[in-house]
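Give me structure tokens for this 183-residue protein.
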Amino acid sequence: MPSLQIVELFHVKQNLIKECFVSELKAWNRVHRITGSNDIDLLYSESLEGLKSIPQNILGFIDVGAGSGIMGFPALVERLGARVCFVEPDIKKASFLLQLKTKVRAIDSSIADNMIIMIKDIQSVSRETIDQFFSGCPYVLISRAFSGSTTLKDAVAKSPMQNIDVFFFHATQTNKFVLEKLQ
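Here you go.
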């Protein structure tokens, strides 16, 4: 179990990194329209709420169609020791994630080291590379980028990522956003 000092230092860095993410995304969003929403704080809190449905022992996340990183980044920041693989085929969005990694490195290099950005789609990601990055850490696939669970299922079925738990972030009929495990 981490010492109290390590946990306190983590929380200080956690707040700095969250602020860095939110301000950087707002700046990029004004120019490049990285995400469809301008309410970055709401997106962040929705993602945090959704992550509660994933067991706490899961510290590895593959954020498919990562875009702004709004699913994977809160996991990286909020879970001590988390590792996130951002998979994003759009060069502009991947450039944002790479820039963000550089900024995070200035605050905490160990958190930046727990990020990997792949500029490709899920079908071309190497399972061997993923397994090596997570090095024995249990991991799941998360996404809010797909228009429906069927589309996400199809993408995963055509990828080397079979037999991994998949969580899909979507709106319910009451417009509440949830992260739900696909069956």
